[in-house]
Amino acid sequence: MNQITNYLEQIDREDPAKRLALVRQFMADHPLEFFRELRAHRPVLVLPECTLVALYDDVIEMLNMPKVFTVALYVPKMANGYLMMHDDDALHYREKSIMQGFLNRDDLPKVREMVGHICTDLLEKASGRIDAVGGYCRLVPATIVQEYFGLIGMETKDLMEWSYWAQVDTFYNQPFDIATPEERKRITDSHNASAAKLGKYIEALILTRGLTLKLRALLEPLRKLWRKITGRNGQPFRDDIVTRMLKTSFPDEMAFDVKRVGVNAGGLLIGTIETTAQATVQAIQYLMERPPLLAEAQNAAAADDPATFDSIIWEALRFVPISPYMFRQTATEYTIAKGTGHATTIPARTNVLALTQSAMFDPKAFEDPESFRAGRNWYHYFTFGYGSHECLGKYVGMVMIPEMVRQIMSKAGLAAKAPIQYDGHMPKSYDLTWTA
Questions:
Q1: Residue 217 and residue 175: Cα distance in Å, rounded?
Q2: What are 91-107's pLDDT values in tens digits?
Q3: Which CATH number fits the domain that encloses residue 137?
Q4: I need a labelling partner for 119 at 20 to 30 A (CA). Which of 80, 81, 216, 296 fits?
């Protein structure tokens, strides 16, 4: 099962200009074996285009220093000063805190129930066959974006398209990604076009929702009189994250005005659909390809308490994460792993890949890391990132992803016609059938 191929020897023999392509091939085809060799023999691998960091302690060291290992590569890809573009500054700290308050963790049981209903409806309508990427794993979080986050009034397919191009351009169109100049331009142009449409939509959404709330407030005395006369409460106004933001007044010193509401509303869309879809579909396939584990998951899916099932999904995503790394760029020169035999000085403006999948197989953090063990220490996973840039919607994702998998695991006779088909890094299709 394990590949014994001397990856580092092959890299060292290769022309320096071609080493990145070879490394990317190893990461795609044999990540666990390649990372094992890196951890053992070269925990910091220096290439002309980027530096790779493989050990758990060193990855943690990196991600705990956002002013040194920055998200500068995000900046050209994002607009309007969204908080993800900022490293440990006032805006990032303030707006992430505000948004975490609006994404109230007390909502999670309601969100999980909402996800369950959406999944059940989609699967019932599918009548025993579905494209698990476009017809399920993207569609469920897109619906949550509408119903819970409040981005309504736009076709679901448009929301999915806008999210897709933002994700591809920001995370898979970087200097260390292998692509032709023509392909890079196509991705960037598609992202720019979709971003322009998203911007116009967000402006219209905030304007119309804001006016509706003001009109409702003006009419509230009449509504109270009507309730008193009739004894009926009437229809409550929708509760979603966009509405919560617009109903909340902040002092000027907080600098969270209506423009910042719009920026953060767009961020909710961009950060939800593609990440959730890829994690979900890859977890489904991982289970489907391992019959004993599939049976274990299906048994756990039938239990009233989802905790055991959820732990199976988090362990599956250790083996098939949406990406094997997080990327940063150094703002200053820094020596990683000081005092060790692999201490390495990284120059300023170096692109660095924190190999989070490798870190999740480091025996320092995971006992017997090659074995599948549900119920491991949650805090050692990197499923939702780490440090100040940990996913804003982490807790929503923690109920959405496993519930989506759980719902489809409940189908009798579940089978895949073929493996997941990819378009570059992104899942494109995955046909599933079951006994309707």
A1: 51
A2: 999 999 999 999 999 99
A3: 1.10.630.10
A4: 296
